[in-house]
Write a structure and sequence with these properties.
The chain is mainly alpha-helical. The chain folds into three domains: 124 residues, no CATH class; 224 residues, no CATH class; 195 residues, no CATH class. The chain is built from 19 helices and two strands. The protein has a two-stranded antiparallel ribbon with strand order 1-2. Helix 6 packs antiparallel against helix 9 and helix 12 runs parallel beside helix 18. It is globular and about 75 Å long. It is found in: Membrane. This is Protein DETOXIFICATION.
């Protein structure tokens, strides 16, 4: 809406007597209308002077302010109205008519040119703002809804991440009724499958979320003839998922015996035969499992966490129905458990692919349209990060096991609670990642900053709330796992670490999400590797002095250093967060022009 000219006077606070050296304006109403379309006509002052030197009068419209707001003028405003003190401007954005003012403040020629320049600048800024809003809408974002967007994405994500652990608990409960041997055999097989899956699948999930969100923001208007989005990041993620899943399946199926030996299960062990059969069957579900995770990342990039929850829930319901039928009805034992899990994985993958096919082109018409470079580079870095964290956690478990069976049981209880309550922070991190990636792709740094700050605030608040809640209820929660008084006593000695570390855990997860959102995968990976080395040293030596408390001191060190690394990156004046340290640009620097 630019600056509109009218006569300025009226309220006492705006009374601006003309300096003696400047003549009053005596232009006719038609002249004023010609100079400033839409301005009000002149009143009494129009005939107060017959001087031939006629100057345009000024009425500022500051669209960023609401009506009646009192401000300190900016540099440009001081140039146009060189008056001391505070000025009271009325917004013209609402279209409210402003009556003509007496005692106008006329402008010399160079200030008229500055006013015209400022008017043009404001119009350009409003056009840019409208374009930015259009880009946000095309990316599935809405201006001014950062908190709502984050919460609406996080809530379904929490539910989605809780479904799989619940299904695994039910599988464990059904298998446990078969006997200790069957439970141990299945447990070894699940552990091997999960370790291999985390190493390769988690990086693909995280990278797909950022790349797809960026692609949508940059290519929101690119559709195929069928009206579906054509996004190279989607097709590339699916092809990579299929390839990785096939490799995992072959490795697990053909190398099941080798993996069991690495886990300490020799061919003479009573667990070997059943564990190898279970692992070989679970290997058949690896392609579906990888594709399922990749499509979840794609939907997160679309800022849609509801669709995956729906289909993951349906797939796990099918597993719950098949488990008792195959295990007890057909008397297949742990073989039936493996078959039911694999079937549910394919059901979820098929449903997700079907839903995705309605929104985006799954495979491009030409192979050269696929873009694997970014995935392979970032995936390689995150692979190192994942290995570092897994190694550190494994060292912690190993050091806890050396403390004896009682300490190991207590450690397992504390670890399960510690990991379970992290689902909320992880969901917030995933949501922040998707929102930041979308805004960062279109260089909307203001929204990126809003999302980051709001995420950290809500993460800290939720972490503190979890810490208090766990501290109050930890004793009751521990009794759900065991009634052994010795184990419960050891659990209580580590409860302080579990509770007090919750705010740190929440911020560490969210910082990872923020850095993933700006595709800063290299820094996250390198920092995590360094953090893992330091934490591993603590885990190797602290338990020798402090026992199980030393193990938890090492795990707390791991999360604390991850949080510190996240903060440090935001403080750097170079890199993807450099815009946080840039000085605000001066919108107008008018220079006096020669008359």
């Amino acid at each position: 809406m630019g600056i509109q000219r009218a006569l300025v006077s009226g309220q006492p606070a705006l009374l601006c007597p003309s300096p003696s050296g400047w003549p009053r304006s005596s232009s006719s109403s038609s002249s004023r209308a010609r100079r400033a379309p839409g301005a009000a006509s002149a009143s009494a002052s129009a005939s107060s002077s017959s001087s031939p030197n006629r100057w345009p009068s000024l009425s500022l419209s500051l669209s960023r302010l609401g009506s009646g707001t009192t401000i300190i003028p900016t540099q440009a405003e001081r140039l146009l109205l060189p008056l001391p003190g505070l000025l009271d401007f009325t917004s013209r954005r609402t279209g409210t008519a402003i009556p003509p003012r007496l005692h106008a403040l006329p402008l010399p020629p160079f200030q008229e040119d500055a006013a015209l320049s400022l008017s043009k600048k404001e119009e350009e800024e409003e056009e840019e703002e409208e374009e930015d809003n259009a880009l946000l809408l095309g990316s599935g974002l809405y201006p001014g809804t950062v908190g709502i967007d984050l919460i609406l994405l996080a809530l379904p994500a929490v539910l989605g991440q809780a479904i799989d652990p619940m299904a695994q608990l039910m599988e464990t409960a059904y298998i446990g009724k078969l006997g200790a041997l069957e439970l141990a055999s299945a447990g070894i097989g699940v552990a091997i499958f999960n370790i291999l899956s985390k190493i390769f699948n988690i990086p693909l999930l995280s990278i797909a979320t950022s790349f797809v969100a960026e692609d949508i923001s940059k290519n929101a208007s690119k559709h195929s003839t069928s009206g579906k989005l054509e996004l190279p990041s989607v097709s590339s993620a699916l092809v990579l998922a299929a390839a990785i899943g096939t490799i995992e399946a072959l490795a697990l199926f053909l190398g099941s015996g080798l993996f069991l030996k690495l886990m300490g299960v020799s061919p003479v062990s009573p667990m070997y035969k059943s564990a190898r059969l279970f692992l070989s069957l679970r290997a058949l579900g690896a392609p579906a499992n990888v594709i399922m995770l990749a499509v979840q990342g794609i939907f997160r990039g679309f800022k849609d966490t509801k669709t995956p929850v729906l289909f993951i829930g349906l797939g796990n319901l099918s597993a719950v129905a098949l488990l008792p039928l195959l295990i007890y009805g057909f008397k297949l034992g742990i073989t039936g458990a493996a078959i039911s899990t694999v079937a549910s994985q394919y059901i979820i993958a098929i449903l997700l692919m079907w839903s995705l096919s309605k929104r985006a082109v799954l495979l491009p018409p030409r192979v050269d349209q696929l873009e694997f470079g970014g995935y392979l580079k970032s995936g390689g870095m995150l692979l190192g990060r994942t290995l570092s964290i897994l190694l550190t956690m494994t060292i912690g478990t190993s050091m806890a096991a050396r403390q004896g069976p009682t300490a190991m049981a207590a450690h397992q209880i504390c670890l399960q609670v510690w990991l379970a309550v992290s689902l909320l922070a992880d969901a917030l991190a995933v949501s922040a990642q998707a929102l930041i990636a979308s805004s960062y792709a279109i260089l909307d740094y203001k929204r990126v900053q809003k999302v980051a700050m709001f995420s950290l605030q809500i993460g800290l608040a939720s972490g503190l709330a979890l810490a208090v809640g766990l501290y109050i209820s930890f004793g009751s929660i521990a009794k759900l796992f065991t009634n052994d008084p010795q184990v419960l006593a050891v659990v209580s000695s580590c409860a302080l670490f579990v509770c007090a570390s919750q705010p740190v855990n929440a911020l560490a997860f969210i910082f990872d999400g923020l850095h993933y959102g700006v595709s800063d995968f290299d820094y996250v990976a390198q920092a995590t590797i360094v953090v893992g080395v330091i934490s591993s040293l603590v885990l190797l030596y602290a338990p020798r002095v402090f026992g199980l408390a030393g193990v938890w001191a090492g795990l707390t060190t791991l999360m604390g250093l991850r949080m510190a690394a996240g903060i440090l990156r935001l403080l750097w004046k170079s890199g993807p967060w450099s815009f946080l340290h840039e000085e605000p640009e001066t919108k107008l620097q008018a220079q006096p022009l020669a008359s």
